[in-house]
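DM between two lab members

TW: hey, do you still have the Mannose-1-phosphate guanyltransferase entry open?
JB: yeah, one sec
JB: this one, 837 aa:
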Amino acid sequence: MRAVLMAGGSGTRLRPLTCDLPKPMVPVLNRPIAEHIINLLKRNNITEVIATLYYLPDVMRDYFQDGSDFGVQMTYAVEEEQPLGTAGCVKNIQQWLDETFITISGDAITDFDLQAAIAFHRAKKSKATLILTRVPNPVEFGVVIADEDGRIKRFLEKPSLSEIFSDTVNTGTYILEPEVLKYLPENQESDFSKDLFPLLLEKGEPMYGYIAEGYWCDVGHLEAYREAQYDGLDKKVKLDFSYEERSAGIWIGNNTYIDPSVSIEAPVLIGDNCRIGARVRIEAGTVIGDNVTIGADADLKRPIIWNGATVGDEAHLRACTISRGTRMDRRSQALEGSVVGALSIVGEEAQIAPGVRVWPSKRIESGAILNINLIWGNTAQRNLFGQRGVSGLANIDLTPEFVVKLGASYGSTLKLGSTVLVSRDQRSVSRMIGRAMIAGLMSAGVNVQNLEATAIPIARTMMNNSIDVSGGIHIRLEPNRPDYLLIEFFDRQGISISKSKEKKIEGAYFKEDLRRVAIQEIGTVSYPSGIMEIYSRTFEKYLNIAAVRNSSSKIVIDYVYGVSGAILPQLLAKFGCDAVVLNASLRETAISAAEKEMLLDQLGHVVEALQANFGVQVSANGEQFILVDEAGLPIRGEALTALMVNTIFTANPRSTVVVPVNASSAVEEIARRHDGNVIRTKVNPTALMETSQDNLNVVLGGNSDMGFIFPHLHPGFDAMFSIAKLIEMLTIQERSLADIRNDLPHVCHKFCSIRCPWKVKGSLMRHLVETHPTENLELIDGVKIINPQNDNWILILPDAGEPLVHIYANSGDRHWVEEQLAQYRQRVQNFIDREQN
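TW: and the structure you got?
JB:
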C-alpha cells in the first residue's frame, strides 16, 4: 500500500518557528514531525511514500532525498503555481494511486495502529474511511458522528463553540479507494472535509469512521507543539528516539559532555555534541538539540532548545522554545510560552515576557524587557473573533495600537482601493478606537466612508444602499458588559461577516501579513451626507404611512442614555405620531442592569400617566427593545418574541418567520393558526441574518435577545422600524398590546445555566447524542431532544463565549418543564463531575 504524506503546510500559527521551515519539518524530540510519521508508516509495513509539497519544498527533499536512509521509498509532488488543498494535491497525483491508499497529515504526532484501520476499511468495503479520535476540545477540528456500524452520518468542519455536537474528530488520516478521486475537479483547490466527503455522503457512497485508540496531537499551534514534546518524553506516545537512554527517562546523544555538578530531573532529552556547564539545573520536560552549549548556573525549566543554540551563564529558560542557532546571553530570560526565532540574539539580562514571539534574525539589546512581539504587534492570541465580532476590555484589551493592526489586517484581505463604511456609538472611547481602525484601513490602501456616530440599523441601511462598498465596521460598547467594547464587521450587504472571512482576517493578523502601500495609494476618508434622508426613505418605503398617520398614536421612548441620536421621534412626528422621549442624552459609561430596570419601571409609570398606547425601551445602539403596554407592564423575553410573531403573521398569513433554535414553541403554535412557516437557526446573529435573507417568503427574523429583522428593509436588527411597524399593525388590526398578549399561546419556557469546562463540552454533547434515539434529536445548534408528537423539547446548548452550558425546557405543561429541567440539570452536572474526576 502507498501512503500520501500531505506536507505542503506553511504552519502560520507556528510562526516564527516556520518562517524558514515547512510545518512538517519542525522538530519534535530533535526529529522532524515528518520523520516521526514515516517511522509510524514503517511500523505499519507501509514503505512507499509520496509527499505532496508546496511551502519551501526543498527543505524536505534535501532532508529525506530518496528515503533510503530512512527505510522507505520517497517520491515528491510539488504544487508549483498554487496550493491545491488537501484533496486537490491528492487528485494531482492520481496516476500513482491505482489501488487502496492512505493519506496522512504531515503535521500531527500519533501512534495509531494503521493496519487495524486498514483491516476495518476492507471489512466494511468502504470507499473512504476516516480515522477518528476523541479530544476534550473539538473546536479546531472536524467533528464527526457515525452510527453503531461506523458509517458516517454527519460531520462539521471546525465548529464554533456553540455548534459542538460530539467530541469525535477527524484526524486528517484517510484510507481511500482510488475511484473516489473521480469526484474531484482537475487542477483546482479542493478539500477532503469541505468538498469530497460531503459529496460522498450525498451520493450515498460507503464512508466509515474508524475510532482509533492511541495518541494523537495536531501540532497546530505553539502550545500544542510544546505539549507534543512533553508527551513524547513521558512516553504517552510511541516514538523512536535518536539517542541512547542512559538511565530511566534520560536520553543523551553521542559526544556530549555534561559537567558532574549538573542536576538533571527525568525525563530529559539531550542531543549529540552538546556542552553542559557547571551547576546547570535541568528540570523534567527539557529537550536540548544537537550542538547546543549551556553556560554555568543556567536554569532550564522545560524549554525546547533547537540545534546549534547557545545559552549563556545564569540564563533562565521557562517552558519556552529557542530556535536554531539562537544566542541567549548571560542572565537573559525567556519566560513561559515565549518563542525566539532562528539566529536571533538576546542580550545580557534581557527578558522576553510570557507568550511573546520573536521573529528570526532579531537582536534584543542588553537589559531590554520585551513584552510585545518583535517586529510588531502584541501578545499572541489564538482567536480574535467571538460570537459577534472582536470584543475586549475598552482601552485594555482593545487598545488603539491593537485596533490599528486589526484594521490593517481587515484591509489587507480586501482589494486595493476598496471602500469600507465605519460607524460607531457616540462615546469617546468608540471615537478613539474608530479613528485607530480608520488609520489601519488607510494604511492598507482602503478608502473609508466615515458615518461617525450612527445607530447600527442606519449603518446597515447605508451598506445596503451603497454600490461600491466592500464591507462595514461598527464600534460600540457591548450591550451586556458595560466596560467592554465590541467591533462588528459587515459584508457588502450589511450582514455580519462569515466564519471564513473572520479566519482570513485572523490569518493576516497572526501572520503579520499586512499590505503596506505607497504614499499615493494610501486610502482616503470621506463623510457621506444625507444619511438620515436615505434611512428615512427606506423606512417609509416598507411602512404603511397612511395607517401610521391615522393611528394618532402616543408612545413613550426611553433611550436609556445610549442610542446614537433620537431618530425615531423625528420620523414618527413626520407621520403624525406623538412621541415622548426619555433619557436621550448620552452617558460615557453604560448604565447598570439594576438602573436599567429602574428606568423600565419609570417608563411604565409615564405610559400610565400619559395614557399612551405603549412605551418602549431601546438599547444596543438601536437594535434591541422592551415594550411596555398601556397598563405599564413590561413585555420582554419569549413574550415579546411571540407578540411580534403574532402581529406579523396576522398581517401576513402563510408567510415565514425565522427564529433561533432556543425560542419558545409559541412561535410554531401561532404559525399554525395562520398557516405560516417557521425556520429555526443557530443561536447567533449571522445565522439569523443569512437565513432571513436567503428565503424570499420571510417577513420577520430574530428574537427578543438579539432584536428583530425585517429582511426587505435591511439585513440587520432594527428596533426603530420594529416600533413603527408595530404601530402600523396595531392600527390596522385594531388591537392593543394587552389584547395581543391575551391572545398568545400558553407555553412554559424556562432555562438554567451550568458551569462546564471547555474540555468537557464536546464529550457532553457526544454523550447526549449517543444516549437518545436519533428520531428524537435535532442538531441545528447544541443537542435538542424533541417529542415528534407535540411541542415538548429540551435543548442543551454550549455557550459560545463562556465555560457554560444552557439547558432550555419547553412545553404547554409547567410541571413537565420543571421536572425535565431539574432532571437534565442533574444529568449534565453528574456527567461534568465524572469527566473531571
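TW: got it. DSSP finds 21 helices and 55 strands in the chain. The chain has five domains: 2-218, 241-370, 390-529, 534-743, 748-836.
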